[in-house]
Amino acid sequence: MPYAHITGWGISVPEPVLTNDDLAKMVDTNDQWIRERTGIRERHIAREDQFPSTLGVEASLKALEVANLAPTDIDLIICTSSSPEYIWPPTACLIQDQIGATKAGAFDIQAVCTGFIFATNMAAQSIRSGAIKNALIIGTETLSRFMNWKDRSTCILFGDGAGAFVLQASDKPGGILSAVMHSDGSGADTLILPGGGARFPANETTVHENKHFVQMDGKAVFRFATRVMGYAAKEALDLAGMTTDDVQWIVPHQANYRIIETAAKYLKMPMDKFVINVERYGNTSTASIPIATVEAVQKGMIKNGDKIVLVGFGGGLTWGALVAEWTGPIPSPKLHVRPTRYRLFARIRSWLLRAVRYIEGVLSRREL
Ligand code: UT7
Asked: How confident is the model at residue 368, as a pLDDT?
């Protein structure tokens, strides 16, 4: 049975930064409160012309470059987002088109902030089954579009960004070693974006009632998160036949420093084994785990051979964890692939397909 290795990684974070002091000019809050209660100092906010697909494409191309893999070699794309470009079509398809992943099946997974864990596990299972060889997983957010910038209890928490992994099949042991996924829909209303779906289709009332903004029972989510984070990490380690002593790094969902501290206490692990960057990005939902992982790799913290645990929680309610052995790109004698070069080809291909569809439409109208 092949193993599913993480062989490529990339992130994309919009440049504009919103500091706590900036927020204090918008709502009744202050830097000290935000830092003490959450650990957040600043977050990045997407420009008007940046969307989940824009950030997702940039992160994906970087991940493919690290893996030295052409977009045309990808079999499967799974995107996960709490702020998808549309209800449908899937953001994954928009990314598939823009990077020129001509043979990939592409779809979205919705598991809110736990989405990246679920998506990585699903892609790894497809590789382990032998069904596919190369997968691209993306967590991408422009959650700032769904914030009520007058609600201090939510708008201080979230930020925008994207992260991507390439997963590849290999006979060499390593890669994703175990994973656990959990859900509790009885807590669906504790963290919810209620408007725009079939229950509350967009209309004047839903706009008036702020139903198109993220709504959250912060305390309930906090209690839930502190209960499940450490437990899920331990469960995934048990499944892999490992203990916390075998692990070099834990990469938790970056929602709140205090939640991570509680998980560390539960696992009886020092805080310096946890990768934490919540102070600079806030909570980037599905993108938070890959952004933290990629930064840790780029800083030389996570090295080849390290065992790591990725652990997340979020709306749904959902939570999960996975254990991986970090192995890096698969060595190959292949020439250096430049995935960005496929963008021009992807644009022309996309344009041609649209043109053919248009001509087909005109011709079929004539036939009728
Ligand atoms: O991906 C998952 C996403 N969600 C989460 O992870 C959220 C989990 N929850 C949390 O992180 C915390 O519950 C929050 C950071 C959201 C809130 O922290 P808290 O310690 O639970 O604060 P609180 O809601 O109990 O509020 C304490 C006080 C209240 O004032 P009173 O009633 O004590 O006078 C709030 O009105 O702080 C007030 N408050 C604020 N003050 C300044 C609430 N938000 C703010 C604010 N600035 N932004």
From this structure: 62
